[in-house]
């Protein structure tokens, strides 16, 4: 298949467009040779006819979809301009990827936005990784240069170029930052800090705002970063090129001068700046040309502070900084010097004597004002051996003033660069190799181009030539390495254009010659150019414009540029009069005089020439062009001696809008920066390169017969001649197969055709199978329907016969029922009428009888009810009056009791008043006893009165009954009057009853409403209480969470400081060893290890600031006091204050005063004797109080029992419930008061114990005599170590113990032995010996940790011993033994030792994790992401294709797998288990390690496109499941170890989930809660189909996911990668160990500590 056959129907082509440069179109019909037009359809659906005269006029073909968004442009099948432009547009707009490879060039598009891809976590992700495995990034180029330098020991260069505003400076800054982090070995030393500090200084004095860039570098710079033998930065050097000094005196519209001037004007109100007499920038002539005073989003004042901080870091003293700012302020005032014209024809210029700007300028620089005013307007000439002074015109004087300003600024710039280089020079040894970073201007073309653009474009011509030759060289190296038969590739060489500029009689030669002419001018120079390069020897790269005689045109490699000749000579000379320089040399300012001292040719090369009146010296001055050529040649020599790496920065639009792509501007820069030339060179050879494995995996379906992966190369060699007829279209290499441009598209079309034929065959078979299945189903359905229909007809006939017979039976029965019902109805009606008639008659008679009886009963009931109501009212009133009287008496009694209670409270002091209190209690008890007796007497009298009254009532009742019997019966005849009265009384009673009933109902309803309202209020109050409780609970939980987070952060910072201190201590030890080795080279003498150990000083950790950090930040929850004030003092106070012990005498006194409620002011003045007297008084009072407490404890029990008996008697004998309740409450209050007093007495006793501990020496007799304090002699089961054996014990037990012997010991044996020995010394009173033992043990443990810094088992062993010794000391500390009567506290002050052991535990824990992390670091990504644990899953997937110029991976060695990761984790788990460490240690350690694994794997996944596919996600998920299963099998899932894997698990689920519909998007957002929005979008963007059945994620789906993510408030920081360096703070919970006895220890003989004696 030829290339013309690719122009078939449906093929994609590119056609030119005036707006979009290139647009995509589809062929509507096949192309046949000879056709004059192509029928195309554009993206908008419009059909066009494209003219084709010859086959060469055919439009470029589009690349296959598989290459859409390729990260390397040279991997495209069709390499041409529209393909490159489209690929960059897709990556920039659709994938938000600003970096793309183009062979060896990194194309960087400025996003004009802040992207979270430059953090330290990104640096960690790229550090040590292969450039081909990661996504394109500026860090990838920096890492490649760094690795090449360290591997090949050859100098490297990174060449960053591009237009103004394309991001060159930012790229250079990130490159240097990467080297500072990687070359600084994860910690920033002084050199790295100074390298980074040079950026703000150079930006302030060398950058300015232009129309294209707000921070444009107006000079070129080349920074050489020197590295030592270990790959660390030890020096740096900077070279600058072609500073734009003309900007000092003039700026174009909408531009600014250099940033430093506006920063000085913004800080004019600072006290140190007021002497400069500065004003707003619009008031100065040199800063007001452009009209732009401010840059949006920039604060000049803060930028100046940043610049001053950078100067300070680089060692520039503040006085020198002010001198530098003074010179810059003087330049601004120089521009405001008013030069006026005078004379008849205004041919003389002068300056007023009282010119304020000149006076300020002279004062700032320390020069004579009149001399400066004179020589600004005059010049000195040498005529005939005599010196003449000639006045200058006003314009000439202005030019001289501007030339002086530019010269001053240039000298200042040069001095600053020299000062930076002196600060960055090496002080740590000789530089082994360096990496140079070149930040230089790109090709420039404006409406008016002058000398600066000419020099810039000349430099770009030289760089482009070097770039072309290097690319050609690499291309040929690739062919040689693969042993291809190749012919020389021709590429466009711009040597002719360079010869035109720098060759003999070139533009620079003629310009220098014209500058040496006495009356040389720009016009004469341009005429010489015309004569030389147009008339005599026409040059193909030189032209003359049609409408101008003062301009010329140069055909550069990028574009044709027209230069205006005006000003070329003046800018090339760059002269300033010597008289002005002499005035500045005589300045009173040392810095000004230093700037303008004679420095020979060095000064001239850097700053141009100084013009004097002598012609002889003037002829030998160097021009700017000559200097620039010399410096550029030196740069080219340097670049040619190094391995270059190229970064081409592209400016996507001129509006500085984020992520806006202008195709015309981009294409223009691609042509100018050489990217398209790289593609053209690659396209001239074999641009498409596939390894045999990749080719076999992709195009296996095109191969005939069975093939295996092992025979990929043979299969490819056999099949390709049949697939591609032309043998010159491909070539076989050793490891790769190479294709000409377009052949990959041919293979893709063949593959698609083969898939289409296979699909047709599969569809044919499947459709036949489906039709047969459908026929069988229809046949069986018809048979089934017939069977069911026949059965239904038979059942219908039987049912009809059954219904006919049933109808006859129903009719017969129905007729019989109707007749019977009619008979029964008539009979029932007759009986009912009779019954109702008889009932009516009987009821009428009964009502008459009932009415008579009811009247009588009603009268009786009403009269009784009225009598009872009157009785109840009288009784209720009496009860109410009694209650009021009793309540008043009770209140009086209550007030009296409260008053007595308050009076009792007054006498609750510790030293007096207890006797009165006891007497009052006794009197109170007697009084209550008397009151009880009186109450019993009253109750007995009440009972007697009640019995008497009851007998009287009974007698009255008997009397009334007798009278009733004697009373005659009422007359049966009732008169009419009585009847009427009775009837009225009944009616009245009925009305009253009805009224009372209604009132009762109303009251009942009101009661119900009140009850309902009460229930509602109760429910509402309950809900409010619940809501308030919930709010309080939430607030408390939030506050506690915030406090816990703050505590964890403080612990993390403290442990980080401890880790940094350990590192610095290690460096100190290394330097000390080096110095000792240096001394021993002169006279070497061997010393015994025991002697060296005994002479070793105390470890700095015991006296370090970190060791004095309080235990609130320590991982141990110790019982020692550690208030927040102590932490602040230990961290922020000076070093001399921090050396004092935290638990000092003053601290104890402060706590004592707080507990005793004693004011601090008088207590501070109490010293020695006063404190002793105060303690005596307290001790006497405490003895009295203790005796009272012992007596009162038994008395309290008796009183409580007596009160209970009295209460029970009072309750049984009293009839008033109110009195019972009041008496009960009074007793309970008394009990509460007694308990409170007992608690206060106990706190007083504990206070006395604390005071005894504070002053043990002054009050030893009292302490000894106290029965509650055990004697030290009672302690047994200890070990005795003599003082002379202390060194031997430490040596045999810690220092010289072998690893195999140490691991065979029981866990914690060394710590137990050391504690028992020190405990025995403490009990015997030898505190110095005990403290010496503890200190030597801590020092020896630290030495053992350093000795076994790479051994997991030994580190775990010493972690166990340090923790055990810490817990033992904490358990026996005085503060901990206050609450325990079984333990005897240590008399030795061990608070600082406990803190030192706490730090040692942290150090051991960090060392343990560091060892495991180092072993895991290089195997996490290969094992978790790259290893194929499930065989054959990814064999058919589209694997990652390496870049075109990359070396194939060497096959050798076993690839890391998950088994290796689990083996390393198992080694750590076994080491911790062997030492019987607490489960909390396991949880915290594996929580940290699993976070490292998850973060490293996820970061690599987010930066590798080849890993983002379905099959790879399945592999990763299986690998993670193995890790999860391992953690669960060891019970580590509860400590958060499994939870840290959640982000990686969700990322893998994201790869495996559906990604098409909106429901899929919602499911993804709901599932991936542990991933940030940036991470989700990044994975979707990088997702690559692993087969033809899969598809890429559409942009609409990504936008849908982004819209859903905006509504999710996950509270996560907007970062892409996880922080791999995050360290979780460790917390060691205090667990009291069992009491140690020497008999319990099993000490093996191998320790050789038999000299210890059991006590």
Structure described in brief:
With 1655 residues, the protein is α+β, with helices and mostly antiparallel strands. The protein is 59% helix and 8% strand. Helix 12 (451-481) packs parallel to helix 23 (675-684), helix 35 runs antiparallel to helix 36 (1217-1254) and helix 43 packs parallel to helix 46.
Protein model, in words:
A hairpin with a 2-residue loop joins strand 14 and strand 15. By secondary structure, the chain is α+β, with helices and mostly antiparallel strands. The chain contains 51 helices and 27 strands.
Key terms:
1655 residues, alpha+beta, seven-stranded mixed beta sheet, extended
**Strand order, biggest sheet?**
5-6-22-7-16-10-11
How confident overall, as mean pLDDT?
79
Q: How would the global form be characterised?
A: extended
Could you give the distance between the termini?
99 Å
Helix-strand makeup class: alpha+beta
- Write down the Rg: 52 Å
* Multimeric status of the protein: single chain
């Amino acid at each position: 298949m030829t290339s013309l056959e690719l122009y078939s129907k449906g093929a994609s082509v590119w056609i030119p467009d005036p707006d979009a440069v290139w647009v995509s179109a589809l062929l509507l019909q096949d192309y046949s040779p000879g056709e004059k037009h192509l029928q195309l359809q554009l993206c908008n659906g419009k059909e066009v006819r494209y003219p084709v005269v010859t086959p060469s006029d055919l439009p470029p073909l589009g690349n296959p979809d598989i290459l859409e968004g390729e990260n390397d442009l040279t991997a495209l099948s069709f390499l041409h301009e529209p393909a490159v432009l489209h690929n960059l547009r897709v990556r920039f707009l659709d994938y938000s990827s600003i970096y793309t490879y183009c062979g060896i060039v990194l194309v960087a598009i400025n996003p004009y936005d802040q992207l979270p891809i430059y953090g330290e976590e990104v640096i960690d992700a790229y550090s040590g990784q292969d450039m081909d495995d990661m996504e394109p990034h500026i860090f990838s180029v920096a890492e490649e240069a760094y690795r090449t330098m360290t591997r090949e020991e050859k100098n490297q260069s990174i060449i960053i170029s591009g237009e103004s505003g394309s991001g060159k400076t930012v790229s250079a800054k990130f490159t240097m930052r990467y080297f500072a982090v990687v070359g600084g070995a994860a910690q920033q030393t002084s050199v790295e800090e100074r390298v980074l500090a040079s950026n703000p200084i150079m930006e302030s004095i060398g950058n300015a705002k232009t129309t294209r860039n707000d921070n444009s570098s107006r000079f070129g710079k080349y920074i050489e970063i020197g590295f030592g033998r270990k790959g660390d930065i030890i020096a740096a050097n900077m070279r600058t090129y072609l500073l734009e000094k003309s900007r000092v005196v003039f700026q174009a519209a909408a531009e600014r001068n250099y940033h430093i001037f506006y920063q000085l004007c913004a800080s004019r109100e600072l006290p140190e700046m007021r002497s400069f007499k500065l004003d707003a920038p619009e008031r100065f002539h040199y800063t007001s040309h452009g009209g732009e005073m401010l840059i949006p989003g920039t604060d000049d004042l803060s930028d100046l502070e940043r610049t001053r901080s950078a100067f300070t870091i680089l060692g520039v003293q503040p006085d020198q900084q002010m001198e530098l700012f003074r010179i810059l302020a003087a330049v601004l005032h120089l521009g405001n010097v008013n030069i006026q014209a005078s004379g008849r024809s205004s041919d003389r210029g002068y300056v007023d004597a009282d010119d304020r700007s000149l006076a300020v300028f002279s004062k700032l620089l320390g020069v004579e004002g009149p001399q400066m005013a004179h020589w600004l307007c005059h010049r000195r000439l040498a005529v005939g051996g005599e010196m003449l002074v000639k006045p200058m015109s006003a314009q000439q004087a202005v030019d001289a003033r501007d030339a002086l300003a530019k010269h001053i600024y240039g000298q200042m710039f040069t001095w600053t660069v020299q000062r930076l280089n002196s600060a960055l020079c090496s002080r740590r040894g000789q530089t082994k190799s360096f990496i140079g970073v070149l930040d230089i201007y790109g090709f420039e073309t404006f409406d008016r181009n002058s000398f600066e653009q000419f020099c810039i474009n000349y430099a770009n011509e030289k760089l482009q030539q070097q770039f072309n030759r290097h690319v050609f060289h690499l291309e040929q190296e690739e062919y040689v390495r693969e042993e291809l038969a190749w012919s020389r590739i021709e590429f466009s060489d711009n040597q002719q254009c360079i010869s035109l500029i720098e060759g003999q009689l070139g533009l620079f030669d003629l310009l220098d010659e014209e500058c040496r002419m006495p009356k040389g001018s720009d016009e004469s120079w341009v005429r010489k150019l015309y004569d030389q390069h147009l008339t005599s020897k026409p040059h193909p790269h030189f032209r003359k414009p049609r409408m101008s005689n003062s301009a010329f045109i140069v055909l550069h490699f990028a574009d044709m540029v027209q230069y205006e000749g005006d000003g070329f000579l003046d800018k090339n000379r760059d002269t300033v009069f010597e008289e002005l320089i002499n005035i500045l040399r005589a300045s009173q300012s040392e810095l000004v005089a230093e700037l303008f001292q004679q420095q020979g040719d060095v000064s001239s090369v850097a700053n141009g020439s100084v013009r004097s009146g002598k012609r002889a010296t003037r002829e030998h001055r160097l021009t700017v062009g000559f200097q620039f050529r010399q410096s550029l040649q030196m740069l080219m020599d340097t670049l040619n001696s190094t391995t270059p790496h190229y970064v081409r920065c592209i400016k996507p639009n001129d509006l500085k809008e984020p992520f806006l792509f202008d195709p015309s501007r981009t294409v223009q820069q691609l042509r100018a920066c050489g990217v398209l030339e790289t593609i053209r060179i690659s396209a001239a050879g074999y641009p498409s390169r596939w390894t045999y494995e990749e080719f076999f995996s992709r195009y296996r379906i095109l191969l005939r017969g069975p093939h295996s992966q092992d025979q990929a190369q043979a299969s490819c060699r056999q099949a390709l001649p049949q697939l591609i007829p032309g043998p010159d279209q491909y070539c076989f290499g050793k490891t790769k197969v190479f294709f000409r441009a377009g052949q990959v598209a041919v293979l893709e079309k063949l593959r698609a055709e083969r898939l289409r034929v296979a699909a047709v065959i599969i569809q044919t078979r499947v459709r036949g199978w489906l039709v047969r299945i459908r026929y069988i189903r229809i046949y069986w359905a018809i048979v089934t329907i017939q069977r069911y229909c026949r059965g239904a007809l038979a059942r219908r006939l039987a049912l009809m016969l059954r219904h006919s017979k049933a109808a006859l039976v129903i009719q017969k029965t129905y007729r019989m029922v109707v007749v019977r019902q009619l008979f029964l109805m008539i009979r029932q009606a007759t009986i009912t009428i009779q019954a109702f008639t008889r009932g009516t008659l009987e009821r009428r008679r009964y009502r008459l009888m009932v009415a008579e009886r009811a009247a009588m009963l009603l009268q009786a009931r009403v009269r009784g009810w009225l009598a009872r109501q009157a009785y109840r009212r009288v009784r209720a009133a009496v009860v109410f009056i009694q209650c009021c009287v009793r309540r008043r008496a009770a209140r009086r009694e209550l007030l009296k009791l409260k008053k007595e209670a308050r009076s009792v409270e007054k006498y609750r002091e510790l030293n007096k008043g207890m006797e009165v209190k006891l007497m009052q209690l006794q009197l109170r008890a007697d009084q209550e006893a008397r009151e009880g007796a009186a109450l019993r007497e009253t109750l007995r009298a009440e009972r007697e009165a009640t019995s008497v009254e009851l007998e009287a009532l009974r007698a009255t009742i008997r009397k009334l009954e007798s009278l009733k019997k004697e009373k005659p019966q009422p007359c049966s005849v009732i008169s009419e009057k009585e009847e009427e009265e009775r009837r009225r009384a009944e009616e009245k009673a009925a009305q009253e009853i009805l009224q009372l009933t209604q009132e009762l109902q109303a009251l009942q309803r009101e009661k119900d409403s009140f009850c309902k309202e009460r229930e509602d209020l109760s429910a509402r109050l309950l809900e409010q209480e619940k809501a308030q409780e919930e709010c309080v609970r939430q607030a408390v939980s939030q506050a506690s969470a915030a406090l816990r987070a703050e505590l964890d952060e403080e612990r993390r910072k403290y442990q980080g400081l401890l880790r940094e201190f350990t590192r610095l201590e290690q460096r100190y030890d290394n330097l000390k060893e080096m110095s000792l080795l240096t001394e021993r080279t002169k006279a070497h003498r061997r010393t015994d290890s025991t002697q060296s150990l005994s002479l070793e000083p105390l470890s700095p950790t015991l006296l370090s600031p970190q060791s004095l950090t309080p235990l609130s930040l320590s991982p141990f929850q110790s019982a020692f006091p550690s208030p927040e004030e102590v932490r602040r003092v230990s961290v922020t106070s000076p070093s001399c204050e921090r050396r004092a012990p935290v638990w000092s005498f003053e601290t104890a006194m402060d706590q004592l005063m707080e507990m005793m409620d004693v004011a601090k002011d008088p207590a501070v003045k109490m010293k020695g004797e006063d404190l002793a007297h105060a303690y005596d008084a307290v001790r006497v009072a405490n003895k009295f109080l203790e005796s009272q407490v012992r007596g009162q404890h038994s008395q309290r029990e008796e009183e409580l029992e007596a009160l209970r008996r009295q209460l029970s008697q009072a309750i049984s004998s009293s009839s008033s419930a109110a009195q019972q309740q009041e008496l009960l409450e009074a007793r309970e209050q008394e009990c509460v008061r007694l308990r409170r007093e007992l608690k206060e007495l106990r706190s007083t006793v504990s206070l006395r114990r604390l005071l005894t501990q504070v002053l043990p020496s002054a009050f030893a007799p009292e302490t000894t005599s106290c029965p509650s304090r055990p004697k030290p002699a009672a302690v047994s089961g200890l070990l005795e170590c003599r003082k002379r054996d202390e060194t031997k014990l430490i040596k045999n037990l810690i220092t010289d113990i072998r690893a195999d012997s140490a691991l065979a010991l029981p866990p914690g044996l060394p710590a137990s032995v050391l504690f028992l020995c020190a405990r025995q010394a403490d009990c015997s009173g030898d505190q110095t010996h005990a403290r010496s033992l503890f200190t030597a043990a801590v020092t020896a443990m630290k030495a053992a940790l350093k000795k076994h810094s790479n051994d997991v088992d030994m580190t775990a062993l010493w972690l166990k011993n340090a923790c055990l010794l810490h817990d033992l000391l904490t358990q026996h500390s005085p503060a901990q033994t206050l609450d325990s009567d079984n333990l005897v506290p240590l008399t030795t002050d061990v608070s600082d030792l406990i803190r030192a052991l706490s730090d040692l535990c942290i150090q051991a824990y960090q060392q343990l994790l560091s060892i495991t992390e180092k072993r895991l670091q290089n195997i996490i990504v290969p094992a978790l992401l790259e290893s194929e644990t499930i065989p054959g899953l990814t064999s058919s997937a589209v694997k990652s294709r390496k870049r075109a110029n990359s070396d194939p991976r060497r096959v050798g060695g076993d690839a890391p797998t998950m088994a290796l990761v689990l083996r390393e984790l198992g080694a750590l788990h076994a080491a911790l288990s062997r030492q019987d460490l607490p489960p909390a240690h396991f949880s915290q350690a594996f929580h940290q390690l699993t976070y490292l694994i998850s973060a490293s794997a996820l970061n690599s996944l987010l930066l590798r496109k080849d890993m983002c596919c379905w099959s790879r996600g399945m592999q990763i998920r299986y690998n993670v499941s193995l890790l999860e299963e391992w953690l669960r099998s060891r019970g580590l899932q509860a400590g958060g170890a499994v939870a840290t894997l959640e982000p990686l698990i969700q990322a893998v689920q994201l790869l495996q989930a559906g990604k098409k519909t909106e429901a899929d998007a919602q499911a993804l957002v709901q599932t991936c809660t542990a991933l940030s929005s940036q991470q989700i979008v990044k994975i979707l963007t990088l997702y690559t189909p692993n087969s033809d059945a899969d598809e890429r994620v559409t942009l609409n789906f990504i936008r849908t996911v982004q819209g859903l993510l905006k509504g999710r408030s996950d509270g996560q920081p907007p970062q892409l990668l996880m922080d791999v360096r995050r360290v979780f703070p460790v917390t060691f919970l205090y667990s009291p160990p069992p009491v140690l006895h020497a008999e319990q220890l099993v000490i093996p003989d191998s320790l050789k500590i038999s000299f210890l004696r059991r006590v």
